[in-house]
Design brief:
By secondary structure, the protein is of the alpha+beta class. It has two domains: 300 residues, no CATH class; 118 residues, no CATH class. Helix content is 22%, strand content 34%. It contains eight helices and 26 strands. The strands form four sheets. Strands 1-6-2-3-10-11 form a six-stranded mixed beta sheet, covered by helices on one side.
Length: 440
């Protein structure tokens, strides 16, 4: 199987940017056909890939519908589209922030191995009865949708592995999503276009599509992990049996008698919430989400940890309010964003993934066809030292694998929402043995 064609461009005019992307894609498709013909591989002389992923920066959000219509007209063989807007977008080795840009990748997948879904074309619970059973799914969501975290978890239950990946669309205006399915929409939704706001959309993949997905954290602990022994809603009232507010003030050396200094310290403090180890883990697919022995050995945050903001203090009940629902028995760690930790963990994740694909335990090496990278909007650019540094690190570690993605208002992996993370998902295929080499 060939690498996925991909292209990206920036231009003040959306039509010119789209034309540049189309020209790049056509050139790659032409080269691919020529290479296949030279090898006598007629199987590769199929029409261009049927599924397109489209990501745009928020500069192009007002033009989302004509932009998608233009791409569909110029690339009629691409029958299905999915994607969204981001405050920034990613491509192989490149980040686009604060400039008009778009990125496209065409996924060369069998038509019976994926389904584009949205609110007007939902992913069914009984998918296998319809001839398609979802194994994993790429999800784009709107942060303003009520109870979006529960909707993501519910969608994950519609897949066989319970594993979904993606992120929340982000931008300084309308957070649009792209979702056009060649299989149509529900009855009564015939007039629906391929551009939506609100809810969830994306692509579900069947068992014939192999993916490897990993999460990298962008924060580091500044205190020990503690058990939430009393909580109400999103307020931690007791940690290890002590007043949560007192624990926070002591660990972070904060005095409420100095309000200005206290506020600065509190703004720099986040919380990492880990599930109760006595409860079933939401990380449902071990092959996609292995145990974080490395993270626990070093004391850094593992992929089971979701990072949230402190949103208030409760001096009456001596509690700490955070931006998520809390449950007694969960673990809480105070932490900070840390560029050095984020850089080291990103490199660790990429190296681990590449080693797994090139030197697998079963001896069957796999080739990276393409990748989707969803990173927190707070991670890109200067957080890694210079513009584009995060994606350049990924390229240095993985090579020139075709990649697209976006900078999100929240990242999706496993069955939950993350913050300050990067979620890297690679589409892979087994490497065919070289017939010119002797067998073992």
């Amino acid at each position: 199987m060939s690498d996925f064609p991909h292209a990206h461009a920036t231009h003040p005019n959306w039509a010119m940017a789209a034309a540049l992307v189309v020209a790049q894609l056509r050139a790659q498709l032409h080269t691919r056909v020529q290479a296949a013909a030279a090898k006598g591989n007629t199987a590769a002389l199929l029409p261009c890939p049927p599924l397109g992923l489209l990501y745009i920066t928020d500069h192009f959000a007002p033009h989302a519908r004509p932009l998608l219509d233009h791409l569909m007209a110029e690339l009629p063989e691409v029958t299905d589209w999915a994607g969204c807007v981001g405050v920034g977008i990613a491509a192989t080795g490149v980040e686009y922030f604060d400039e008009p840009a778009l990125a496209v990748m065409l996924l060369d997948l069998p038509a019976d191995q994926y389904r584009v879904f949205s609110g007007v074309s939902p992913l069914p619970l009984g998918g296998s009865a319809l001839g398609f059973e979802a194994t994993t799914a790429l999800v784009h969501a709107d942060a303003l949708t009520a109870d979006v975290a529960s909707l993501v978890a519910e969608l994950a239950q519609r897949t066989r592995t319970g594993y979904v990946f993606g992120g929340l669309a982000s931008g300084r205006g309308a957070t649009v999503q792209f979702s056009h399915s060649s299989r149509g929409a529900l009855g009564g939704q015939g007039a629906a276009g391929g551009v939506f706001q609100g809810g969830l959309s994306g692509v579900a993949f069947g068992s014939g599509v192999s993916v490897v997905s990993r999460v990298t954290q962008g924060c580091t602990p500044v205190g020990p992990q503690r058990v939430i022994t009393r909580a109400e809603g999103n307020v931690a009232l007791a940690l290890d049996g002590e007043d949560a507010l007192g624990v926070l003030l002591t660990e972070r050396d904060i005095s409420l008698d100095e309000p200005q200094a206290a506020m600065e310290r509190l703004r720099a403090t986040l919380v990492g919430i880990a599930p109760d180890p006595s409860q079933p883990s939401p990380l449902a697919h071990p092959a996609l989400a292995p145990a974080d022995a490395w993270a626990h050995r070093t004391g850094w945050l593992g992929t089971e940890v979701r990072v949230r903001h402190i949103i208030g203090l409760d001096p009456v009940r001596k509690g700490v309010a955070v931006g998520d629902h809390l449950a007694e028995g969960e673990r809480l760690t105070f932490c900070e964003r840390n560029a050095h930790a984020a850089r080291a963990d990103l490199l660790r994740m990429c190296a681990e993934l590449r080693d797994e694909l090139e030197s697998p335990a079963d001896g069957t090496a796999q080739h990276m066809l393409g990748a989707v990278y969803v990173s927190c909007a707070g991670r890109g650019g200067p957080h890694f030292g210079s513009p584009g540094a995060e994606l350049q690190l990924v390229r240095r570690a993985l090579g020139g694998v075709p990649l697209v993605g976006f900078f999100a208002g929240g990242e999706i992996a496993h069955q939950q929402l993350y913050g300050y993370t990067g979620v890297l998902t690679v589409f892979v295929a087994d490497v065919a043995p070289n017939p010119d080499l002797p067998s073992a």
